[in-house]
């Protein structure tokens, strides 16, 4: 319960404020004590000296009177102030409470003595001009302390009384001060769960502005993420439904058509099935990739990998009279997942073949350049404009004007794999072939063959 | 009935065109939004089938532009976007029907016929004039209860005339409604078909307005 209450800002503020107030007040009291004691000592010592001087003068005037005179007690403080007057070592005057022996061994100036009854006294001693008169004036130290205590009491008592009042005032102040915070939590509490628009509060205190700004930033990011997911779902629906709709339409056409039309419709139906299969596979690959953590760390020989992937894809290229070439100088090792890099390369080469015309050339090269290993796929196709390149990797984005069916997911897959394998993808125009050049760079991560 | 199909996917477009042709529609196929807007605005089509995700101009924009230009041709939106806000937006922008892919071809045909019918203020699918009854869905015509065999062109011509019963249609208008792209029209084809129709059905069914065109009179009983 205590811990809980200290978790509250209110309790924390209150304890801090009251604690600090008490410390400040006590320090002030200590200062006052010191000052007051000093002033009091000076003042009372001054009185002692004055009284002693008076007695000396008086004794000088009546030094013939040898009888001891006791001064009457005239004030309730009188018992606390005593004096003795000696003339030629003979006690001649004293106050009622004073003893017969000299109060102090010190004959001139101030001293502090303890008398036979245990009480402590401040004593001022002085002598007459001819040293025949010795005067002692003493004051009980306890009486000085009583005055100091009274002073201290008058300082500390208000504090004791004020502390509960201060606590109450502090509680109210903190309560009011934290009102915007409570208001914010109410506003947040009343929101619909799907509401992602920024929180707008009027008269927001400066201290809360960073908090609300950070909150709005978070809401914005969530909204963008949700929006991206919504768009993905809509796009996925479109991409999945279209081949299915095509298959359905073609199948229905086949049912009601003459022989020649039926053949065409059935062929198209099969092509539609292939397309849907490809799309589903790409979607699944992408979904699996989302879950792969970055930093897979096999050692993969790009040259060997490229040889294998190109061997797989060559038959399709040959069927369209496309030249598929591999340019590898030496083995070139990089870190990454062999399986994933295979998918990446297959997607890149497949894209290059798919979007280049019949008879085009696709060149795959693996090289160790000065800033690291590079895997490059170039084609002699139509290439791409800068805005088209910028939109690559948006899921389901397809460069317009292509009759070739594609899922529009290949780029997302390539990007994600590169990210997982610590590489980066750069698109440019191919200097050698004039079409698109896609290169995958590993920054200084390569291992030279030894 | 001449229909404009706007669909950018080659496989689906090919299937829809073939399927609708089987159902007796004349189908022209465009693959982008700008072409779709241009063709639908020409007014020669009885209805349009519009995909929304078209290159160059989105289907929704096409629809909005058409309705802003007061083009009243019925438009059926055929799309993969099935979210309710999309449907609402499509219908509010002026779509006459909203169908989510994939769709059954026969249903698509029926919906198109229904759109065209409603555009002409008809309640029933079948059209009647005197003793002649035309049933578009079955593509059948009967005279006094007996089926009459018509060629597809003859049927389409009669359908076009009966759909616009009471209005005179020029030869050009009839040709536009009958022939999709790639079909050459010979100069006297319409006259030949009219002649056949008069012979097979009733001589006075189709009236000639000299120098203007042809008309089927409104059915006196229907009024």
Biggest β-sheet description of chain A: 6 strands, mixed
Q: What overall form of chain A do the CA principal axes indicate?
A: rod-shaped
Mean pLDDT of chain B: 88
CATH architecture of the largest domain in chain B: 3-Layer(aba) Sandwich
The radius of gyration of chain A is 51 Å
- CATH fold group of the largest domain in chain B: Rossmann fold
Major beta sheet, strand line-up of chain A:
1-3-2-6-5-4
Per DSSP, the total helix count of chain B is 8
**Oligomerization:** heterodimer
Going by CATH, the architecture of the largest domain in chain A would be 2-Layer Sandwich
H and E order of chain A? HHEEEEEEHHHHEHEEHEEHHEE
Rg of chain B is 18 Å
Please give the domain count of chain B: 2
Residue share in β-strands of chain A: 15-25%
CATH class of the largest domain in chain A: Alpha Beta
- Could you tell me the number of beta strands of chain A? 13
Overall form of chain B: elongated
The chain pair with the largest interface is: A-B, 29 and 25 residues
Biggest β-sheet strands, sense, barrel of chain B: 5 strands, parallel
User: How many DSSP-defined strands of chain B?
Assistant: 11
Question: How are the SSEs ordered, and which strands pair?
Answer:
The complex is a heterodimer of chains A (450) and B (223).
Chain A lengths: L1 H5 L2 H53 L7 E3 L9 E7 L2 E6 L13 E6 L5 E8 L5 E8 H37 L1 H11 L19 H47 L3 H33 L6 E4 H18 L3 E6 L4 E4 L1 H17 L6 E9 L2 E8 L6 H6 L18 H11 L3 E6 L6 E6 L9
Parallel strand pairs in A: 1-3, 8-10
Antiparallel strand pairs in A: 2-3, 2-6, 4-5, 5-6, 7-9, 10-11, 11-13, 12-13
Helix pairs in contact in A: 2-3, 5-6, 6-10, 7-8, 8-10
Chain B lengths: L1 E5 L3 H13 L3 E5 L2 H9 L5 E4 L8 H10 L6 E5 L4 H9 L4 E4 L4 H15 L7 E3 L2 E4 L4 E4 L2 E3 L3 H12 L7 H8 L10 H12 L5 E4 L3 E4 L7
Parallel strand pairs in B: 1-2, 1-3, 3-4, 4-5
Antiparallel strand pairs in B: 6-7, 7-8, 8-9, 10-11
Helix pairs in contact in B: 2-3, 6-8
């Amino acid at each position: 319960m205590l811990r809980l209450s200290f978790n509250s800002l209110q309790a924390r503020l209150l304890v801090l404020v009251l604690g600090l107030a008490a410390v400040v007040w006590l320090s002030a009291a200590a200062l006052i004590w010191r000052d007051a004691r000093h002033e009091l000592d000076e003042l009372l010592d001054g009185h002692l000296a004055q009284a002693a001087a008076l007695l000396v003068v008086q004794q000088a005037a009546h030094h013939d009177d040898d009888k001891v005179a006791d001064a009457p007690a005239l004030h309730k403080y009188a018992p606390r102030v005593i004096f003795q007057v000696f003339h030629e070592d003979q006690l001649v005057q004293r106050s009622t409470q004073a003893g017969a022996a000299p109060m102090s061994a010190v004959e001139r100036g101030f001293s502090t003595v303890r008398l036979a009854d245990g009480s402590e006294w401040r004593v001022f001693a002085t002598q007459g001009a001819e040293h025949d008169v010795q005067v002692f004036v003493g004051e009980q130290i306890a009486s000085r302390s009583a005055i100091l205590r009274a002073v201290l009491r008058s300082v500390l008592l208000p504090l004791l009384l004020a502390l509960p009042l201060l606590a109450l005032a502090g509680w109210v102040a903190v309560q009011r001060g934290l009102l915007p915070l409570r208001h914010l939590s109410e506003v947040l509490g009343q929101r619909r769960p799907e509401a992602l628009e920024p929180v707008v509060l009027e008269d927001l205190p400066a201290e809360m502005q960073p908090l609300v700004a950070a909150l709005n930033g978070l809401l914005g990011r969530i909204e963008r993420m949700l929006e991206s997911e919504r768009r993905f779902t809509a796009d996925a629906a479109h991409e999945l439904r279209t081949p299915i709709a095509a298959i359905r339409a073609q199948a229905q056409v086949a049912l009601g058509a003459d022989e020649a039309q039926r053949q065409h419709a059935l062929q198209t139906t099969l092509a539609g099935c292939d397309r849907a299969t490809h799309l589903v596979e790409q979607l699944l690959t992408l979904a699996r990739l989302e879950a792969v953590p970055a930093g897979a760390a096999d050692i993969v020989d790009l040259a060997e990998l490229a040889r294998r992937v190109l061997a797989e894809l060559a038959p399709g290229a040959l069927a369209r009279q496309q030249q598929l070439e591999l340019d590898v100088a030496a083995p070139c090792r990089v870190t990454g997942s062999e399986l994933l890099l295979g998918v990446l390369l297959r997607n890149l080469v497949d894209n290059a073949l798919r979007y280049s015309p019949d008879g085009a050339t696709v060149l795959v090269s693996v090289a160790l350049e000065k800033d690291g290993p590079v895997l490059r796929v170039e084609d002699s196709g139509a290439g791409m404009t800068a805005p088209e390149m910028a939109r690559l990797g948006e899921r389901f984005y397809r460069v317009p004007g292509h009759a070739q069916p594609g899922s529009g997911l290949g780029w997302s897959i390539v990007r994600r794999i590169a990210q997982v394998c610590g590489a980066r993808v750069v698109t440019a125009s191919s200097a050698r072939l004039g079409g698109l050049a896609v290169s995958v760079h590993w920054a200084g991560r390569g291992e030279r063959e030894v | 009935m001449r229909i404009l199909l706007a669909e950018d996917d080659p496989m689906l477009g090919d299937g829809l065109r073939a399927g609708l042709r089987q159902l007796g529609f004349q189908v022209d196929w465009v693959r982008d939004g700008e072409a779709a807007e241009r063709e639908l605005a020409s007014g020669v089509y009885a209805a349009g089938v519009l995909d929304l995700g078209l290159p160059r101009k989105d289907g929704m924009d096409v629809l909005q532009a058409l309705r802003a230009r007061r083009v009243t041709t019925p438009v059926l939106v055929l799309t993969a976007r099935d979210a309710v806000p999309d449907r609402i937006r499509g219908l509010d922008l002026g779509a006459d029907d909203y169908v989510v892919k994939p769709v059954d071809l026969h249903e698509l045909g029926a919906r198109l016929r229904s759109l065209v019918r409603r555009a002409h203020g008809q309640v029933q699918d079948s059209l009647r004039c005197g003793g002649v009854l035309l049933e578009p869905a079955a593509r059948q015509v009967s005279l006094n209860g007996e089926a009459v065999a018509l060629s597809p062109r003859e049927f389409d011509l009669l359908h076009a005339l009966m759909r616009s019963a009471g209005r005179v249609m020029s030869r050009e208008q009839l040709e536009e409604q009958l022939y999709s792209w790639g079909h050459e029209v010979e100069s006297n084809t319409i006259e030949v078909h009219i002649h056949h129709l008069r012979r097979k059905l009733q001589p006075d069914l189709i009236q000639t307005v000299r120098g203007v065109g042809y008309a089927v009179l409104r059915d006196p009983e229907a009024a």
